[in-house]
Design a protein that fits this description.
- The protein has three helices and twelve strands.
- It has a single domain, classed as Sandwich (Immunoglobulin-like), CATH 2.60.40.420.
- The termini are far apart.
- Helix content is about 20%, strand content about 45%.
- Strands 1, 2, 3, 4, 5, 6, 7, 8, 9, 10, 11 and 12 form a twelve-stranded mixed sheet that branches.
- By secondary structure, it is α+β, with helices and mostly antiparallel strands.
- The structure holds copper (II) ion.
- The site of copper (II) ion has 5 residues, from loops.
Length: about 200
């Protein structure tokens, strides 16, 4: 009898592990609006188009390892980018162009680069970005995209050509608890102005 109970326990354990594995791998669904969440990891697929992100709100927990997969679904052959921060910064002759955020969510974080295709720009800002072809992409960004625009805060940013994808992960620090924003500032901030931003909420 003890043997049967033990085996039943093992079956439950194996099933739970399989379930966890299935959750961790998520992010292939076309209509993915939420994260596949287990206790310490969550994965989000974030679609980018004119001029919005889908989903528009992401909620994560401090201590979680979060994987974000970006897909540029542009129908107008436009590049789109992804930044997370607080305190909008504007520039331009009339101080009316959103350029980014004063506070970069990724500052001091370690970002693991998993994969990317048709990546136009990968800037580390003040994050440490490692893995995959991150080094080559960052070098390419420096040589092709050049320095930041005047007044543009130095921040972690991924910009994708139409059809491009990028996948990266990071662990959310306890100090990040609060409400952040993610946004796209392409075309002198016009994408942001047209509504291309969303909420990134970090709970305890
Ligand atoms: Cu955009």
């Amino acid at each position: 009898m003890g043997g049967i109970q033990r085996r039943a326990g093992l079956v439950v354990l194996v099933s739970s592990l399989l379930l966890l594995a299935a959750c961790g791998n998520g992010s292939t669904g076309a209509a993915n609006t939420g994260g596949q969440t287990s206790e310490n990891t969550s994965a989000y697929t974030v679609g980018m188009t004119e001029y919005e992100f889908n989903p528009k709100e992401i909620t994560v927990h401090a201590g979680q390892t979060v994987t974000i997969k970006l897909i540029n679904h542009s129908k107008e052959q436009k590049a789109h980018e992804f930044k997370i921060g607080q305190q909008l910064v504007k520039g331009g002759d009339f101080n009316d162009k959103p350029l980014g955020y004063q506070v970069d969510f990724f500052k001091g974080l370690k970002v693991t680069w998993i994969q990317g295709s048709d990546v136009e720009e990968l800037r580390p800002g003040e994050a440490t970005v490692q893995g995959g072809d991150a080094d080559a992409l960052m070098k390419k960004t420096l040589s092709e995209a050049g320095p930041l625009e005047p007044g543009e805060p130095n921040a972690f940013v991924v910009s994708l050509a139409p059809g491009g994808t990028a996948e990266f992960s990071f662990t959310v620090p306890a100090s990040a608890v609060g409400t952040w924003e993610f946004g796209c500032f392409e075309e002198d901030g016009q994408h942001y102005v047209q509504g291309m931003h969303g909420q990134f909420v970090v709970t305890k």
